[in-house]
Amino acid sequence: MALLTPQDLEGLTKHLECNNDTIKKTTGMDIADICKQIYGTTLDGEKVGIVPITSGNGIITNFSSSLLTITEYFGLDGAVTEHPDVTGYYEAVSSDADIILMADDHIFIAHNMRNGKIATNHVCTGVVYAEIASRYKYADSKDILVIGLGRVGYAGAQHLVKRDFDVYAYDPDRKTMEKARKELGIIPYDPEEEHKFSMVLEATPNPNTISEGMVAERCLISTPGIPCGLPEDIGKKNEIDLVMEPLMIGVASMLYAVM
Fold first, then answer.
1. CA separation for the pair 214, 224 (Å, rounded)
2. Edge-to-edge, what's the strand order for the sheet holding 166-170?
3. Is the distance from CB of 210 to CB of 237 less than 8 angstroms?
4. Are 247 and 222 spatial neighbours (Cβ–Cβ below 8 Å)?
5. Which of 6-10, 65-69, 75-79, 190-194 comes out lowest in average pLDDT?
6. pLDDT surpassing 60 at residue 9
7. How much is the pLDDT for 1?
8. Total-model pTM
9. For 135-189, what is each residue's pLDDT tens digit?
């Protein structure tokens, strides 16, 4: 998935509340309830240490403060460490943090210091966005389409297969498609062959990945992708329920995953 920019992190709370409204309207559950269902866990005011990391491309402006906003939104006691990197990690551990959040260019993790559980953002994001799509109240079948089989999409497809959905998937990389077919049992989807879905997980960093032949007249598109893969004209023609938020839903999934 694409790296976040400071612009992507603007107005996060408003984005989450808007998406939460859509999720509740289309699934009957809010994001916290969905995470509880996935992992069988609850949050109870845990202390979260947020450690800025300077390696690679360095600290993304607003990232740590955004994580602080998210932890507090879900009722946790968040704090950004004064120092980054190893010193920051030491600071978080020394301050008796229950959970540590930190990310570099390659991986974003939550680590529960009490039970040892570690969760990665790409897996947790794929799982929660897949689960949201799968709970669509207006779905017309068990067919669900996954677009993009990178780390996020693959995790989402795997989750849906375990939930006994008929998982169709598309990725332009043939080797990736063959791997998913063999390992997961997904049904390869050909965009040239019209097959309309009422549930879509879009997990790519590309625009306009969704064509008119993919979506039913009423459809839920669940996507953490930046930019959005839904073309504006298709969104206007069809009754599309769109869940798209760049960070908070995935982080919520991580926090519940390590409890």
1. 18
2. 187-188, 166-170, 143-147, 197-202, 215-223, 239-244
3. no
4. no
5. 6-10
6. no
7. 40
8. 0.94
9. 999 999 999 999 999 999 999 999 999 999 999 999 999 999 999 999 999 999 9
Candidates 100, 108, 192, 211; CA nearest to 152 is 108
Question: CA 129, CA 202: separation in Å to the nearest integer?
Answer: 9
**How confident is the model over 58-66, as a mean pLDDT?**
75
Per-residue DSSP letters for the chain?
Answer: -PPP-GGGGTTHHHHHHHHHHHHHHHHSS-HHHHHHHHHS----S-EEEEE---STT-PPTTHHHHHHHHHHHTT-EEEE-SS-HHHHHHHHHHTT-SEEEEE-SS-EEEEETTT--EEEHHHHHHHHHHHHHHT-TT--SSEEEEE--SHHHHHHHHHHHHTT-EEEEE-S-HHHHHHHHHHH--EE--TTS---EEEEEE--S-SS---GGGEEEEEEEEE--SS-SS-HHHHHHTEEEEEE-SSHHHHHHHHHHT-
Both tokens of 127, joined, read: 């799982």
